Amino acid sequence: MIDIYMIASRLALAVVLSGLIGYEREVHGRAAGLRTTILVGVGSCLIMIISMYLHAVYAGSADVDPTRIAAQVVSGIGFLGAGTIIRYGASVRGLTTAAGLWAVAGIGLAVGCGFYSAALMATGIIFLVLVVLSRFERNIRKQFDKTLTVEICGGIDKFCQVTKTISDFQAEIKDIEVQPAPGKDVFKIILNLKLYNQKLSNKITQSLVQVEGVTSVKWV
Q1: Does the predicted TM-score (pTM) go above 0.85?
Q2: Of 75, 114, 123, 188, which has the fewest CB atoms closer than 10 Å, so is most exposed?
Q3: What pLDDT, in 10s, does the model give residues 193-207?
Q4: Angle at 111 between CA 106 and CA 116, to 5 degrees
Q5: What's the pLDDT at 161?
Q6: What residue ranges in the chain does DSSP mark as E strands?
Q7: Are strands 86-88 and 91-93 parallel, antiparallel or unpaired?
Q8: Could you tell me if residue 123 is inside a domain?
């Protein structure tokens, strides 16, 4: 039978480990921050403890699988993670946070069943991935992410011609922002692009200035 000390120690460890992951998410202002990750970790830990408790109580009198309830956490946490994924312009945000919630649920289950070494190692790895690799990701993005500002005089058809011209050069449009510009029927498009071949930037500029209605093309 699981005693009170074991229950308290496992729940406390789940708070600390999941809180460490949640702190990193909170610092970056993500939707699922400190409180959410702690709740997921503690809840998963509690479910695992309940599964083990039921197995101990009904041992010999009923066939109880202690992994059955815990298995539902792995699939069920996906619904919570989906709530953190949002579409922002032409890009999608929240995938890392959703994956973090799913991983925190795994940490809670590991702590709940007393598999402390796996929980500690997983927490360390996840924290390093979120902190260290985020900087590495930013350096990679700086190499490929470019911002292009295009001023257009005309209607929506000109806008479509601009995006098609950019797509022809296999440049991925990550985000688009449209702003009004001085003058009649003039507007400005700010495009966040992922440009895998930097040499194509001049060719994109040359092609865009030939589009009727485009008055200005500038890389930021």
Answers
A1: no
A2: 75
A3: 877 777 778 888 888
A4: 110
A5: 81
A6: 86-88, 91-93, 145-153, 172-180, 186-194, 214-219
A7: antiparallel
A8: no
The backbone torsions φ and ψ at residue 66, rounded to the nearest 5 degrees and listed phi first, read -70, -15
Inside any domain, residue 135: no
Question: Do 90 and 168 share a structural domain?
Answer: no
Residue 166 or 155, more confident: 166
Residue type at 120? L
DSSP 149: E
Q: How far is CA 38 from the centre of its chain?
A: 17
Mean pLDDT of 75-83: 76
Separation of alpha carbons 57 and 71, rounded Å? 20
Residue 109 shares a structural domain with residue 39: yes
User: Residue 29: which residues within 8 A CB-CB, separation 6 or more?
Assistant: none
132, amino acid identity: V
Residue 91 bridge partners (DSSP): 88
pLDDT given at position 23? 86
Position 127 in a domain: no
The total of structural domains in the chain comes to 2
Quick: pLDDT tens for 11-43: 999 999 999 888 887 877 776 778 888 888 998
- Percent of the residues in the chain that have a pLDDT greater than 70, as a whole number: 87
- For 67, the domain range is 4-114
SS3 letters across 36-98: HHHHHHHHHHHHHHHHHHHHHHCCCCCCCCHHHHHHHHHHHHHHHHHCCCEEECCEEECHHHH
